[in-house]
TrEMBL record:
Biased composition annotated in UniProt, kind: Polar residues: 1-35
Function: Transfers the 4'-phosphopantetheine moiety from coenzyme A to a Ser of acyl-carrier-protein.
Cofactor names: Mg(2+)
Origin organism lineage: Bacteria, Bacillati, Actinomycetota, Actinomycetes, Micrococcales
Record's protein name: Holo-[acyl-carrier-protein] synthase
SUPFAM superfamilies per UniProt: 4'-phosphopantetheinyl transferase (SSF56214)
Region (Disordered): 1-40
């Protein structure tokens, strides 16, 4: 029996209760003030999304509809084992939920990759990247896990506190 695994991007850890040595992780944007000291810009959560995928159900869907893999996953994702694909599917669904809408979002423009430390992250391209930018989103945090026949993903979308998404200004 294989044990599940959990991956969380470093951008979501440590929690505020942890050591301050990583406090810059809570706000990605930093700027220099007139004295040259760095000051943090606050970020605002603009969306959260979570999705849970039953691995057996996902496997049946992929077996029943062979072209499903090609419609949902980028070429770089296709060689992953089924449980990893299920986690990536959950991540993409959770991203759409965090964005609040699937308008302008295309499955093949969302790729789940891993950084050098093995942490999951999104690589967005095309219209999907443009939608995220237009909504003022400056940071996406992704956490994924699979165990006990299920895969789950959680996404937090943030923007800089002073960023105003296009079409949302009061002018």
């Amino acid at each position: 029996m294989q044990r599940g695994s959990t991956s969380t991007s470093h951008a979501t850890w440590p929690s505020p209760s942890q050591s301050n040595k990583h406090s810059q992780l809570s706000t990605k944007a930093q700027s220099s003030n007139q004295t040259g000291e760095k000051e943090r810009q606050n970020s605002v959560i603009v969306g959260i999304g979570v999705d849970l995928v039953d691995l057996a159900r996902f496997e049946r869907a992929v077996d029943r509809t062979p072209r499903l893999r090609d419609r949902l996953f980028a070429a770089s994702e296709l060689d992953k084992p089924l449980r990893s694909l299920a986690g990536r599917f959950a991540a993409k669904e959770a991203l759409i939920k965090a964005l609040g809408s699937s308008d302008g979002v295309h499955w093949l423009e969302i790729t789940v990759t891993n950084n050098a430390q093995g942490d999951p992250r999104f690589d967005l391209t095309g219209e999907t990247a443009a939608v995220v930018a237009a909504r003022g989103i400056t940071s996406l945090h992704l956490s994924m896990s699979h165990d006990a026949g299920a895969a789950i993903a959680f996404v937090v979308a943030e923007r800089a506190d002073d960023a105003v998404p296009s079409g949302m200004d009061d002018a």
